[in-house]
Amino acid sequence: MQSWQSHPVPRVPGIPMPVRLFDTATRELRPTTPGHTATMYVCGITPYDATHLGHAATYLAFDLVHRLWLDAGHAVHYVQNVTDVDDPLLERAERDSADWMVLAMRETALFREDMEALRVLPPRDYVGAVEAIPEITEVVAKLLADGVAYRADEGFPDVYYDHSATAWFGSVSNEDEPTMRALFAERGGDPDRPGKRHPLDPVLWRAARPGEPCWDGELGSGRPGWHVECSVIALNRLGMGFDVQGGGSDLIFPHHEFSAAHAEALTGQHPFARHYVHAGMIGLDGEKMSKSRGNLVFVSRLRGDRVDPMAIRLALLDGHYRADRDWTPALLEAGAARLATWRAATALPAGPSAEDTVARLRTHLADDLDTPRALLAVDAWAAEAMAGRGRDPDAPTLIRTAVDALLGIALAE
Ligand code: ZN
Protein backbone atom coordinates (compact mmCIF):
# COMPACT_ATOMS: atom_id res chain seq x y z
CA MET A 1 0.00 0.00 0.00
CA GLN A 2 1.19 3.51 -0.71
CA SER A 3 2.73 5.26 2.31
CA TRP A 4 2.84 9.05 2.68
CA GLN A 5 5.41 11.72 1.84
CA SER A 6 8.45 12.18 4.02
CA HIS A 7 9.97 15.46 5.12
CA PRO A 8 13.77 15.58 4.97
CA VAL A 9 15.35 15.20 8.42
CA PRO A 10 18.38 17.47 8.90
CA ARG A 11 21.54 16.31 10.69
CA VAL A 12 22.03 17.90 14.10
CA PRO A 13 25.55 18.81 15.27
CA GLY A 14 26.63 17.40 18.63
CA ILE A 15 26.54 13.99 20.24
CA PRO A 16 23.45 11.75 19.86
CA MET A 17 22.14 9.70 22.79
CA PRO A 18 21.06 6.02 22.84
CA VAL A 19 17.33 5.92 23.53
CA ARG A 20 15.89 4.18 26.58
CA LEU A 21 12.25 3.10 26.56
CA PHE A 22 9.92 1.51 29.07
CA ASP A 23 9.24 -2.10 28.07
CA THR A 24 5.78 -3.39 29.05
CA ALA A 25 6.91 -7.04 28.98
CA THR A 26 9.82 -6.72 31.44
CA ARG A 27 8.33 -3.64 33.15
CA GLU A 28 11.63 -1.83 33.09
CA LEU A 29 13.25 1.12 31.44
CA ARG A 30 15.94 -0.31 29.15
CA PRO A 31 18.06 1.05 26.31
CA THR A 32 17.02 -0.02 22.83
CA THR A 33 19.95 -1.83 21.22
CA PRO A 34 19.44 -1.72 17.47
CA GLY A 35 21.99 -2.92 14.96
CA HIS A 36 22.88 -0.91 11.87
CA THR A 37 19.18 -0.93 10.92
CA ALA A 38 16.72 -0.33 13.74
CA THR A 39 13.43 -2.17 13.32
CA MET A 40 9.98 -1.12 14.50
CA TYR A 41 6.41 -2.25 13.96
CA VAL A 42 3.54 0.00 15.05
CA CYS A 43 -0.04 -1.18 14.73
CA GLY A 44 -1.98 0.89 12.25
CA ILE A 45 -5.56 2.04 12.08
CA THR A 46 -8.77 0.25 11.21
CA PRO A 47 -9.93 2.81 8.64
CA TYR A 48 -13.61 3.27 9.45
CA ASP A 49 -13.31 6.77 10.88
CA ALA A 50 -10.95 9.73 10.72
CA THR A 51 -7.71 10.03 12.71
CA HIS A 52 -8.48 11.29 16.19
CA LEU A 53 -6.04 12.83 18.66
CA GLY A 54 -5.57 9.52 20.46
CA HIS A 55 -4.21 7.98 17.26
CA ALA A 56 -2.11 11.05 16.57
CA ALA A 57 -0.52 10.95 20.05
CA THR A 58 0.46 7.30 19.58
CA TYR A 59 2.04 7.79 16.15
CA LEU A 60 3.85 10.91 17.36
CA ALA A 61 5.47 8.94 20.19
CA PHE A 62 6.89 6.35 17.79
CA ASP A 63 7.87 9.10 15.37
CA LEU A 64 10.18 10.40 18.10
CA VAL A 65 11.75 6.93 18.50
CA HIS A 66 12.27 6.89 14.71
CA ARG A 67 13.91 10.34 14.85
CA LEU A 68 16.19 9.47 17.78
CA TRP A 69 17.41 6.37 15.97
CA LEU A 70 18.10 8.43 12.82
CA ASP A 71 19.95 10.96 14.97
CA ALA A 72 22.09 8.12 16.36
CA GLY A 73 23.06 7.14 12.80
CA HIS A 74 20.84 4.09 12.35
CA ALA A 75 18.87 3.27 9.26
CA VAL A 76 15.27 2.61 10.33
CA HIS A 77 13.02 -0.09 8.94
CA TYR A 78 9.57 0.93 10.12
CA VAL A 79 6.51 -1.16 9.29
CA GLN A 80 2.86 -0.29 9.86
CA ASN A 81 -0.31 -2.09 8.86
CA VAL A 82 -3.80 -0.97 7.92
CA THR A 83 -6.55 -3.30 9.14
CA ASP A 84 -8.57 -2.75 6.00
CA VAL A 85 -10.93 -5.65 6.60
CA ASP A 86 -12.29 -6.40 10.09
CA ASP A 87 -15.53 -6.39 12.06
CA PRO A 88 -15.59 -2.68 13.11
CA LEU A 89 -15.05 -1.56 9.50
CA LEU A 90 -17.78 -3.86 8.19
CA GLU A 91 -20.18 -2.81 10.95
CA ARG A 92 -19.64 0.89 10.18
CA ALA A 93 -20.12 0.30 6.43
CA GLU A 94 -23.34 -1.58 7.17
CA ARG A 95 -24.59 1.18 9.50
CA ASP A 96 -23.93 3.87 6.88
CA SER A 97 -25.04 1.76 3.90
CA ALA A 98 -21.57 2.32 2.47
CA ASP A 99 -19.23 0.06 0.51
CA TRP A 100 -16.68 -1.17 3.09
CA MET A 101 -13.85 -0.95 0.54
CA VAL A 102 -14.65 2.65 -0.41
CA LEU A 103 -14.91 3.59 3.27
CA ALA A 104 -11.52 1.99 3.98
CA MET A 105 -9.83 3.72 1.04
CA ARG A 106 -11.29 7.11 1.97
CA GLU A 107 -10.32 6.95 5.63
CA THR A 108 -6.85 5.58 4.85
CA ALA A 109 -6.29 8.49 2.45
CA LEU A 110 -7.35 10.95 5.16
CA PHE A 111 -5.04 9.25 7.67
CA ARG A 112 -2.08 9.67 5.28
CA GLU A 113 -2.90 13.36 4.90
CA ASP A 114 -3.11 13.81 8.68
CA MET A 115 0.21 12.03 9.26
CA GLU A 116 1.93 14.10 6.58
CA ALA A 117 0.51 17.35 8.02
CA LEU A 118 1.74 16.35 11.50
CA ARG A 119 5.16 15.57 9.94
CA VAL A 120 5.14 11.96 11.09
CA LEU A 121 7.88 10.12 9.18
CA PRO A 122 6.30 7.44 7.00
CA PRO A 123 6.82 3.69 7.41
CA ARG A 124 9.01 2.01 4.81
CA ASP A 125 6.36 -0.72 4.49
CA TYR A 126 2.73 0.31 4.81
CA VAL A 127 0.78 -2.91 4.43
CA GLY A 128 -2.95 -3.55 4.22
CA ALA A 129 -4.51 -6.70 5.67
CA VAL A 130 -6.16 -7.41 2.33
CA GLU A 131 -2.91 -7.33 0.38
CA ALA A 132 -1.29 -9.57 3.04
CA ILE A 133 -3.94 -12.32 2.82
CA PRO A 134 -1.74 -14.76 0.85
CA GLU A 135 1.04 -14.57 3.46
CA ILE A 136 -1.43 -14.77 6.37
CA THR A 137 -3.09 -17.82 4.80
CA GLU A 138 0.26 -19.56 4.55
CA VAL A 139 1.02 -18.97 8.24
CA VAL A 140 -2.41 -20.07 9.46
CA ALA A 141 -2.13 -23.24 7.36
CA LYS A 142 1.26 -23.95 8.97
CA LEU A 143 -0.16 -23.38 12.49
CA LEU A 144 -2.96 -25.84 11.63
CA ALA A 145 -0.47 -28.38 10.33
CA ASP A 146 1.61 -27.96 13.50
CA GLY A 147 -1.44 -28.69 15.66
CA VAL A 148 -1.41 -25.33 17.48
CA ALA A 149 -4.46 -24.13 15.54
CA TYR A 150 -7.75 -25.98 15.12
CA ARG A 151 -11.15 -25.79 13.48
CA ALA A 152 -13.98 -24.81 15.80
CA ASP A 153 -16.91 -25.90 13.69
CA GLU A 154 -20.39 -25.42 15.19
CA GLY A 155 -21.80 -24.09 11.95
CA PHE A 156 -18.76 -22.26 10.58
CA PRO A 157 -15.31 -23.86 10.23
CA ASP A 158 -13.40 -20.93 11.75
CA VAL A 159 -9.74 -21.52 12.63
CA TYR A 160 -8.67 -20.75 16.21
CA TYR A 161 -5.29 -20.56 17.89
CA ASP A 162 -4.67 -22.69 20.98
CA HIS A 163 -3.49 -20.09 23.51
CA SER A 164 -1.56 -22.76 25.46
CA ALA A 165 0.66 -23.58 22.45
CA THR A 166 3.79 -21.97 23.91
CA ALA A 167 5.17 -21.47 27.41
CA TRP A 168 5.73 -17.78 26.59
CA PHE A 169 2.04 -16.87 26.50
CA GLY A 170 1.43 -14.07 29.00
CA SER A 171 4.94 -12.68 28.82
CA VAL A 172 3.92 -9.45 27.06
CA SER A 173 1.03 -8.33 29.26
CA ASN A 174 1.94 -10.19 32.49
CA GLU A 175 -1.80 -10.39 33.24
CA ASP A 176 -3.46 -13.19 35.24
CA GLU A 177 -6.15 -15.29 33.61
CA PRO A 178 -9.22 -13.55 35.08
CA THR A 179 -7.88 -10.18 33.83
CA MET A 180 -7.09 -11.67 30.43
CA ARG A 181 -10.60 -13.06 30.18
CA ALA A 182 -12.15 -9.71 31.05
CA LEU A 183 -9.96 -7.80 28.55
CA PHE A 184 -10.53 -10.41 25.85
CA ALA A 185 -14.31 -10.02 26.14
CA GLU A 186 -14.06 -6.23 26.28
CA ARG A 187 -11.73 -5.84 23.29
CA GLY A 188 -13.32 -7.81 20.47
CA GLY A 189 -12.73 -11.40 21.65
CA ASP A 190 -15.40 -14.11 21.58
CA PRO A 191 -15.00 -16.06 24.85
CA ASP A 192 -18.44 -17.69 24.61
CA ARG A 193 -18.16 -18.93 21.03
CA PRO A 194 -19.13 -22.65 21.15
CA GLY A 195 -16.63 -25.20 19.85
CA LYS A 196 -13.47 -23.51 21.14
CA ARG A 197 -11.00 -25.42 23.28
CA HIS A 198 -10.63 -22.48 25.66
CA PRO A 199 -12.48 -19.15 26.01
CA LEU A 200 -9.21 -17.19 25.44
CA ASP A 201 -8.37 -18.79 22.10
CA PRO A 202 -8.46 -16.08 19.38
CA VAL A 203 -9.65 -16.46 15.80
CA LEU A 204 -7.01 -16.84 13.08
CA TRP A 205 -9.31 -17.29 10.09
CA ARG A 206 -12.99 -16.45 10.08
CA ALA A 207 -14.98 -18.58 7.65
CA ALA A 208 -17.24 -16.70 5.24
CA ARG A 209 -20.62 -15.50 6.53
CA PRO A 210 -23.39 -14.44 4.18
CA GLY A 211 -22.89 -10.85 3.05
CA GLU A 212 -19.31 -10.57 4.36
CA PRO A 213 -16.23 -10.14 2.16
CA CYS A 214 -14.16 -13.32 1.86
CA TRP A 215 -11.17 -14.76 0.08
CA ASP A 216 -10.76 -18.29 -1.25
CA GLY A 217 -7.69 -20.42 -0.67
CA GLU A 218 -6.38 -23.43 1.15
CA LEU A 219 -8.14 -22.42 4.40
CA GLY A 220 -11.51 -22.24 2.68
CA SER A 221 -13.43 -19.09 1.97
CA GLY A 222 -13.00 -16.48 4.74
CA ARG A 223 -10.93 -13.59 6.10
CA PRO A 224 -8.05 -13.21 8.57
CA GLY A 225 -8.20 -12.46 12.29
CA TRP A 226 -6.64 -9.24 13.53
CA HIS A 227 -3.80 -10.51 15.74
CA VAL A 228 -2.38 -12.86 13.12
CA GLU A 229 -2.50 -10.05 10.56
CA CYS A 230 0.02 -7.97 12.52
CA SER A 231 2.02 -11.03 13.49
CA VAL A 232 2.60 -12.07 9.88
CA ILE A 233 3.14 -8.58 8.44
CA ALA A 234 5.79 -7.85 11.08
CA LEU A 235 7.47 -11.26 10.98
CA ASN A 236 7.78 -11.38 7.19
CA ARG A 237 9.41 -7.95 7.01
CA LEU A 238 11.38 -7.63 10.24
CA GLY A 239 11.96 -11.21 11.42
CA MET A 240 11.91 -12.38 15.03
CA GLY A 241 13.46 -10.21 17.75
CA PHE A 242 12.86 -6.84 16.10
CA ASP A 243 13.55 -3.78 18.21
CA VAL A 244 10.18 -2.22 19.07
CA GLN A 245 6.57 -3.33 18.85
CA GLY A 246 4.42 -0.28 19.45
CA GLY A 247 0.84 0.83 19.87
CA GLY A 248 -1.66 2.27 22.30
CA SER A 249 -1.93 0.74 25.77
CA ASP A 250 -5.32 -0.73 24.81
CA LEU A 251 -3.43 -3.11 22.50
CA ILE A 252 -1.34 -4.80 25.21
CA PHE A 253 -3.88 -7.54 25.72
CA PRO A 254 -5.09 -9.39 23.75
CA HIS A 255 -3.64 -7.87 20.57
CA HIS A 256 0.10 -7.69 21.27
CA GLU A 257 0.08 -10.79 23.46
CA PHE A 258 -1.38 -12.89 20.64
CA SER A 259 0.59 -11.25 17.81
CA ALA A 260 3.71 -12.32 19.72
CA ALA A 261 2.28 -15.75 20.60
CA HIS A 262 1.42 -16.62 16.98
CA ALA A 263 4.91 -15.75 15.75
CA GLU A 264 6.57 -17.56 18.64
CA ALA A 265 4.47 -20.70 18.07
CA LEU A 266 5.30 -20.55 14.36
CA THR A 267 9.06 -20.13 14.75
CA GLY A 268 9.75 -21.73 18.14
CA GLN A 269 11.71 -18.57 18.95
CA HIS A 270 11.25 -15.90 21.62
CA PRO A 271 10.88 -12.95 21.83
CA PHE A 272 8.84 -11.61 18.95
CA ALA A 273 9.94 -8.05 19.81
CA ARG A 274 12.69 -6.91 22.18
CA HIS A 275 10.69 -3.94 23.48
CA TYR A 276 6.92 -3.63 23.77
CA VAL A 277 6.20 0.06 24.02
CA HIS A 278 2.76 1.50 24.74
CA ALA A 279 1.34 5.00 24.54
CA GLY A 280 -1.30 6.24 26.99
CA MET A 281 -4.86 7.14 26.07
CA ILE A 282 -6.02 10.66 25.24
CA GLY A 283 -9.25 11.66 26.97
CA LEU A 284 -11.74 14.45 26.73
CA ASP A 285 -13.42 15.74 29.88
CA GLY A 286 -11.95 12.90 31.91
CA GLU A 287 -13.11 10.11 29.57
CA LYS A 288 -11.05 8.08 27.13
CA MET A 289 -11.52 9.34 23.57
CA SER A 290 -13.34 6.54 21.79
CA LYS A 291 -15.84 5.79 19.13
CA SER A 292 -18.37 4.30 21.51
CA ARG A 293 -18.42 7.44 23.69
CA GLY A 294 -18.73 9.70 20.66
CA ASN A 295 -16.17 12.17 22.08
CA LEU A 296 -13.56 12.09 19.32
CA VAL A 297 -11.57 15.15 18.29
CA PHE A 298 -10.35 14.63 14.73
CA VAL A 299 -7.03 15.89 13.38
CA SER A 300 -8.68 16.66 10.04
CA ARG A 301 -11.40 18.72 11.76
CA LEU A 302 -8.77 20.84 13.52
CA ARG A 303 -6.89 21.26 10.26
CA GLY A 304 -10.16 22.31 8.62
CA ASP A 305 -10.47 24.96 11.34
CA ARG A 306 -7.06 26.27 10.20
CA VAL A 307 -5.23 25.07 13.30
CA ASP A 308 -1.50 24.79 12.54
CA PRO A 309 -0.60 21.05 12.66
CA MET A 310 2.62 22.06 14.44
CA ALA A 311 0.54 23.50 17.29
CA ILE A 312 -1.35 20.18 17.52
CA ARG A 313 1.98 18.37 17.57
CA LEU A 314 3.35 20.60 20.34
CA ALA A 315 0.13 20.28 22.35
CA LEU A 316 0.28 16.47 22.25
CA LEU A 317 4.02 16.39 23.04
CA ASP A 318 3.42 18.58 26.10
CA GLY A 319 2.35 15.41 27.98
CA HIS A 320 4.43 12.28 28.49
CA TYR A 321 3.55 9.61 25.92
CA ARG A 322 2.87 6.90 28.51
CA ALA A 323 0.49 9.02 30.59
CA ASP A 324 -3.25 8.87 30.06
CA ARG A 325 -4.10 12.53 29.63
CA ASP A 326 -6.85 14.92 28.65
CA TRP A 327 -7.11 17.01 25.51
CA THR A 328 -8.35 20.52 26.25
CA PRO A 329 -8.75 23.74 24.26
CA ALA A 330 -6.24 25.32 26.69
CA LEU A 331 -3.65 22.69 25.73
CA LEU A 332 -4.03 23.60 22.07
CA GLU A 333 -3.81 27.32 22.87
CA ALA A 334 -0.62 26.71 24.84
CA GLY A 335 0.78 24.71 21.90
CA ALA A 336 0.01 27.57 19.51
CA ALA A 337 1.56 30.16 21.86
CA ARG A 338 4.69 28.04 22.29
CA LEU A 339 4.98 27.64 18.52
CA ALA A 340 4.70 31.39 18.00
CA THR A 341 7.40 32.07 20.62
CA TRP A 342 9.78 29.49 19.20
CA ARG A 343 9.25 30.87 15.68
CA ALA A 344 9.87 34.43 16.80
CA ALA A 345 12.97 33.47 18.80
CA THR A 346 14.55 31.46 15.97
CA ALA A 347 13.85 34.27 13.50
CA LEU A 348 16.13 36.62 15.50
CA PRO A 349 19.60 37.34 14.08
CA ALA A 350 21.29 35.95 17.21
CA GLY A 351 20.63 34.33 20.57
CA PRO A 352 22.35 32.64 23.48
CA SER A 353 24.61 29.73 22.54
CA ALA A 354 22.46 26.70 21.90
CA GLU A 355 24.79 23.69 22.27
CA ASP A 356 23.72 23.01 25.87
CA THR A 357 20.06 23.32 24.97
CA VAL A 358 20.45 20.80 22.15
CA ALA A 359 22.31 18.43 24.51
CA ARG A 360 19.47 18.74 27.03
CA LEU A 361 16.88 18.15 24.31
CA ARG A 362 18.65 14.92 23.33
CA THR A 363 19.08 13.80 26.95
CA HIS A 364 15.42 14.29 27.85
CA LEU A 365 14.09 12.64 24.69
CA ALA A 366 16.44 9.67 25.07
CA ASP A 367 15.10 9.23 28.61
CA ASP A 368 11.89 7.40 27.67
CA LEU A 369 10.78 10.31 25.46
CA ASP A 370 10.52 12.88 28.22
CA THR A 371 8.95 15.48 25.95
CA PRO A 372 7.65 17.77 28.74
CA ARG A 373 11.21 18.44 29.88
CA ALA A 374 12.51 18.59 26.30
CA LEU A 375 10.00 21.34 25.48
CA LEU A 376 10.94 23.26 28.63
CA ALA A 377 14.59 23.20 27.58
CA VAL A 378 13.70 24.89 24.28
CA ASP A 379 11.36 27.30 26.12
CA ALA A 380 14.25 28.40 28.32
CA TRP A 381 16.46 29.14 25.33
CA ALA A 382 13.62 30.98 23.52
CA ALA A 383 12.90 33.15 26.58
CA GLU A 384 16.56 34.19 26.79
CA ALA A 385 16.70 34.92 23.07
CA MET A 386 13.49 36.99 23.20
CA ALA A 387 14.95 38.95 26.13
CA GLY A 388 17.82 39.92 23.84
CA ARG A 389 20.46 37.89 25.68
CA GLY A 390 23.24 36.24 23.75
CA ARG A 391 25.14 37.22 20.64
CA ASP A 392 25.62 33.84 18.93
CA PRO A 393 24.53 34.27 15.30
CA ASP A 394 24.47 30.47 14.72
CA ALA A 395 22.20 29.69 17.69
CA PRO A 396 18.78 30.33 16.09
CA THR A 397 19.62 28.03 13.17
CA LEU A 398 20.94 25.32 15.49
CA ILE A 399 17.74 25.38 17.56
CA ARG A 400 15.58 25.34 14.45
CA THR A 401 17.50 22.36 13.08
CA ALA A 402 17.37 20.40 16.33
CA VAL A 403 13.66 21.08 16.88
CA ASP A 404 12.98 19.99 13.29
CA ALA A 405 15.06 16.80 13.40
CA LEU A 406 14.36 15.61 16.96
CA LEU A 407 10.85 16.91 17.70
CA GLY A 408 9.54 17.04 14.13
CA ILE A 409 8.45 20.65 14.53
CA ALA A 410 8.94 22.95 11.53
CA LEU A 411 9.71 26.47 12.76
CA ALA A 412 10.40 28.09 9.39
CA GLU A 413 7.02 29.22 8.05
ZN1 ZN B 1 -1.47 -4.78 15.37
List keywords for this structure.
413 residues; alpha/beta; four-stranded antiparallel sheet; 13 helices; elongated; binds zinc ion
Protein model, in words:
The protein has 413 residues and is α/β, with parallel strands linked by helices. Helix content is 42%, strand content 15%. β12 (282-284) and β13 form a beta hairpin. α6 packs across α7, α10 (329-346) crosses α12 (371-386) and α11 (355-366) packs parallel to α13. The chain is elongated, with a radius of gyration of 22 Å. The model has no long low-confidence stretch (mean pLDDT 96). Zinc ion binds at residues 43, 230, 255, 259.
How far do the termini sit from each other? 31 Å
Tell me the number of strands: 14
Output the radius of gyration.
22 Å
Q: Structural class, please?
A: alpha/beta
Strand content: 15-25%
**Which series of helices and strands comes N to C?**
EEEHEHHEHEEHEEHEHEEEHHEHHHH
Compute the number of helices. Answer: 13
Poorly predicted ranges: none
Spatial strand sequence of the major β-sheet: 5-4-3-10-11
